[in-house]
Design goal:
It is built from 13 helices and twelve strands. It has helices spanning about 45-60, 80-90, 105-120, 135-140, 175-195, 195-205, 210, 215-230, 245-255, 265-280, 290-300, 310-320, 350-355, and strands at about 5-10, 15-20, 40-45, 65-70, 100-105, 125-130, 145-150, 150-160, 165-170, 325, 330-335, 340-345. The strands form three sheets. Strands 1-2-9-6-5-3-4 form a seven-stranded mixed β-sheet, with helices on both faces. β3, α1 (about 45-60) and β4 form a beta-alpha-beta unit. The structure holds glycine (GLY). Glycine binds near residues 138, 142, 144, 236 and 240.
């Protein structure tokens, strides 16, 4: 089984990201360093029946005594009550600081499990096994872990890097088409902001069907790009904000339509085309770029236009409240060309005029 490995050289921690088809069923050698330890595998009601048995078997082979904790699937799980349930489960399993917590699922499972791993006993060993494309190319790498607060998403969180990330591309076979699309939006984003060759490869592959046979290589490239941003800016004070290309409008759309109506990656897809158009209007982005991005996104079956009936005024007002707002402007990522970008402060009036 060919395995593509990427090393994240993050300050104060260095970890490998292994990417392969069938990795879940053959990962026991990668757990050899944890021989003799205990592990809690945190899954959700979707991933537990599909993958937890396979992972437990591999852990057992590696000499790791593991049990499974199952959370309800869905964003509502990222809350203080479920976090408390995780602490109880870790205590019941007698996990010590020498032991290991493994997140087996998408971004929700990764985020709450990482936050629990970071805070339980002031930090235990943490491994990510992401099973959605979005988690594989984005949230499992870089150490952002969090739960939601009733007043907002990800308001309680930390930076806590995993020690190992295992990506089994075969998990995407059981993922619904919308979830795959949401991940593809982020994949195309990496091409737009950082890697022209990746963008052109995605452009020439042009459909999901033609991408699938080389998806492991593409995921590895995305992980390498994400790891590079995290190396340069582990705590998200500077260049890492480039990963927010398309997010200015995406956050406003998610807010206006109600969280969960659009998947995050779907909203980002619409937001990237909008940001490319804004860049063209402002003379930052070469003419024709937005159309090229729109064509690629549509080839991969993603939405590219703001749904009818949403008011530009309301969206602009929400964008002005975005957490990236500084004073009276909103720092927005614009492309200087395909594969390169920059942060530009825009006023709410500018944004409203361009919507
Ligand atoms: N998901 C963006 C970041 O990790 O910075």
């Amino acid at each position: 089984m060919p395995v593509v490995s990427v090393t994240a050289n993050v300050p104060e921690s260095r970890y490998d990201i292994h990417i392969a088809h069938g990795l879940l069923a053959s990962c026991s050698p990668l757990f050899a360093p944890y021989k003799g330890r205990r592990a809690a595998v945190v899954a959700d009601s979707n991933t537990a029946p599909l993958y937890s048995y396979t992972l437990l078997e591999q852990l057992h082979r590696a000499g790791v005594e593991a049990s499974v904790v199952i959370l309800p699937a869905g964003e509502e799980t990222k809350c203080a009550e479920q976090l408390s349930q995780l602490y109880d489960a870790f205590l019941n399993a007698h996990l010590t600081r020498a032991d290991l917590v493994i997140a087996l699922g998408g971004g929700v499972v990764g985020d709450i499990t990482g936050y629990a791993a970071c805070t339980y006993l002031r930090g235990v060993h943490f491994v990510q096994v992401p099973t959605t494309l979005l988690a594989q190319v984005d949230s499992s790498v870089g150490g952002k872990v969090a739960i939601n607060h009733p007043r907002g998403k990800n308001l309680l969180g930390a930076f806590y890097q995993p020690e190992l990330v295992l990506v089994d591309c075969d998990t995407l076979k059981t993922l619904d088409a919308r979830q795959v699309g949401a991940g593809l939006g982020e994949v195309i984003k990496y091409g737009c902001i950082y890697d022209r060759a990746l963008f052109e490869r995605l452009e020439s592959l042009s459909t999901r069907e033609r991408l699938m046979p080389v998806l492991d290589e593409v995921i590895a490239r995305c992980c390498a790009i994400k790891a590079e941003y995290v190396r340069l800016d582990p705590h998200d004070h500077g260049v890492r904000m480039q990963l927010n290309f398309g997010h200015t409008l995406a956050h406003a759309l998610e807010n206006a339509m109600g969280y969960g109506t659009l998947l995050h990656g779907e909203a980002v897809s619409i937001g990237m085309v909008a940001a490319a158009r804004w860049g063209e209007t402002l003379g930052v982005t070469p003419k024709g770029t937005a159309e090229r991005i729109r064509a690629v996104l549509e080839g991969y079956e993603l939405m590219t236009e703001v749904p009818a009936g949403l008011s530009a005024q309301a969206l602009a007002a929400t964008m002005a409240l975005d957490k990236k707002a500084e004073g009276s402007t909103v720092r927005t990522v614009l492309l200087t060309e395909i594969g390169q970008c920059t942060g530009v402060p825009l006023t709410p009036d500018q944004l409203k005029a361009m919507l």
